[in-house]
Design goal:
CATH topology: Porin
CATH superfamily: Porin
Strand content: over 45%
Order of helices and strands: EEEEEEEHHEEEEEEEEEEHEEE
Distance between the termini: 47 Å
Oligomer: single chain
Largest sheet: 16 strands, antiparallel, barrel
Number of strands: 20
Structural class: mainly beta
Amino acid sequence: MEPAGVSSRPGTAAPDTGVPATVTAPSASGGVSAPGQSLPPNPPPSSRFDVPATLESKKVNVKFGPGFELRSDDDEYILQFHNLTQFEYRGYEQGGHQTERDSFLIPRQWWMFSGRMTKPIGYFLSFANGFDTISMLDVFLDFDFDPRFRVRAGRFKTPFTYEFLVDPIQGLIQPERSVFFNNFGQNRDEGVMGFGRLFNKTVDYAAGVFNGNRNGYVANTDSKFVSAFINWKPFNNAEGSALENFNVGGSVFGGTNDNLPFPQVLRTIVPTSGNSVAGVPFLAFNNNVREVGPMTFWDLHAAWFYRRLAVIGEWASGTQDYALNNRLSYRTSLPIDAFYVQAGYLLTGETRSGLGIVKPLHPFNLNPDKFGLGAWELTGRYQHLDIGQQVFSQGLSDPNLWANRLFITDLGFNWHVNQYVKFMFDWEHSEFNNPVFTNVGQSSKTNDLFLARIQLYF
């Protein structure tokens, strides 16, 4: 007698499932292969032939931290799984807005799989739920034959700005990256990149060719974008020096556009993929505007990490061409200029060499034998963004509704409960050079956001 719900005829669907039954083939070990194989089945692997390839049997070691890891005894094969969960509340002092809402949000839920298939070849795959969108975040292969020159191919973080390429999202001092990067940075893209470390580990570089679609998946034009990054740690080998973890460098990216503005609406604290209720809009391009022609941005950075202190600053500038749909041959080269300075200071004595997960000296524990309050960190950031007046004078946006210059101040603190759980509390005050639209008949020159976030990362 067959179990309930299982069809007795090959190739038919099982009741209630609608899923075609699969034909299974013997595996190399003489058993039955997993479902999902081809139909009809391919010839089984055999040691007498090179194709189909036989599977290797490896002993593995299992460990936790960071993430769950399976590693073969000979270190040829690695599989890691990481998880990032962020849950937060964003509340605005200026309520009743049409353009943003006080909200509980899930800005990020990421599942990450990484490792290598033989020592020279690495892989990374991640899926993300951000606010209300699920997407494939990263998928790439690394070819690591020499640390001085490695190759990455797929969709990944492009080499533009220190805060994006170097600083991991789970280790940021502030909850989100700068207003310049979130609105004008290249973000992730598909392409090929060479990168490596030179001169006795004092210089890191990366340069690649990409589709040029900001945080996109397909190319908008035949032309390709070029991005490049360099970072110099002149005292990297002076162990114990106050400047051991001092960084300086820059980056650039550019190409030719032909697409709708992306993002169409610029916001204070939302990545390009973010939901419209989660950040304050300060400028919206008119519906008849396109990005047409060259776009070039450059960035200079400096970062210093010394004992408990972290200080990072970047200055970014460049131009992007726009045109109106009825006058595509007449282009406006719009200048953009921005900078930010941010700092974090660990009050409880932990030291740092960069941004990343903090391991508290005394993780939070109320047991008298293991009493601890975790790690506490004061944070602050000041940033400025200036978009050329041409955005209004050339009809790209409405000066009666929007601003082209803003100043943002962040003050807050982080509580690292242990190395896996972190609370972030941030007050963000934004000032606009023009009143910005908030609701029908309403506008405001300032905005105050209060953000509280809990993060789990392993």
